[in-house]
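Hello,

Our lab assistant flagged a job as stuck in the queue for most of the afternoon. It eventually completed. Since we weren't sure the result was trustworthy after the delay, we are filing this so someone can double-check. Below is the sequence as submitted and the structure that was eventually returned. Let us know if re-running is recommended.
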Amino acid sequence: MMNNFNLSGRRINALVLRHYYLIRGSIPRILEMAYWPTVQMVIWGFVTQFFIGHSSWLASAAGVLIGAVLLWDLLFRSQIGFSMCFLEEMWSRNLGHLFVSPLRPHEFIISMMVVSCLRGFFGLLPSWVLAFVFFEFSIFSYGLGIVAFFSCLMVMGWALGMIVVALVLRFGLGAESLAWVAIFAFAPISAVYYPVETLPAWLQIIAWCTPSAYVFEGMRSVLIDNNFRYDLLLGAILVNIIYLFAGIFVFSFSFLGARKQGKLLQTGE
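-- returned structure --
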């Protein structure tokens, strides 16, 4: 039984290379990864520049909006990067070929996580560079602790990605649009651009059930008060554990059902 949980670095690496070559050979895919994060950052950067001259609060924390945009895009890219790996296999009718090979579902998940990291890094790199060049803002200047918040957002994105993939397995490609819109259901309660206390009391309870709310509150604490909140980091990690196990469970349940029903061979464009 334990043998079923063995990991093969060669199989994981092969799948990562498959997506690397897919992206490397497609200029539109490369541009798509960087386009929206860059546009978002430039727009909010100029909005910040305008507000700095009209708000003493923003003047004291000039990077708070830019930082929020960069972190939100990281969460979005993590989730969409994970989901896109799976959708690419469905569009090309490749799932059946993959799973008649020795590839295991957990190896497939790990490879999608790796590809999601790579897609997120290279997609966000231009916006990080331009944020520094245009607005002299670098979120990494606030210490290594901010990297821990980055990691929490990545893990949350993977968990949501697994749930999206599970829904696509269950309902077919008719549900693929969820890959682009599902994450935005969390935007109002993630407190991206405003503190959690801005929300109604009943909605604050729901907000604290999302790792992203802890992360964005922690980001504002660092940028505005120059205070790294370890309690918020711990909260994000604990809630992330629940999200990650929920994502793994839902994905595994849907995958086993799809395999028994032969859906892995029937899906595609």
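-- support follow-up --
The delay was a queue issue, not a problem with the job. The result is valid. Residues 19 and 25 are 10 Å apart (CA to CA). The mean pLDDT is 82.
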